[in-house]
What does this fold into?
Amino acid sequence: MAPAHEERLVETTEAINARLDREFFSPGFDPRFPNMNQAKRCWVNYVDYHRCLKQKGEDYEPCQYFKKVYQAICPNAWTSKFDEQREAGIFPYDFDKDLKAKQHADGGHVDKAHH
It folds into this structure.
């Protein structure tokens, strides 16, 4: 059994690695956005994150990738503005249309677990 001070070191190392993953995430190259201007990439990943949450729910881990990307490349002022617009119901994307289209494709079936 490891001494107590070694266990604390392991916990500290895990905490540091988790923090570094959050603070230094780099999304890498995305061939859909080959140009230097990343505004569209910011927008698409922000929308994809919120679409994913709406369709799959808060606990669906793969959604976090989109969040990491938009947090890494979008200016904070933009995401704050996007958040304000979503909360006010004036964000220029209808997240509910995806659910309506899915329900229509599924014959009107609604998966209550994701609402």
Observations:
- The longest helix spans residues 4-23.
- The mean pLDDT is 79.
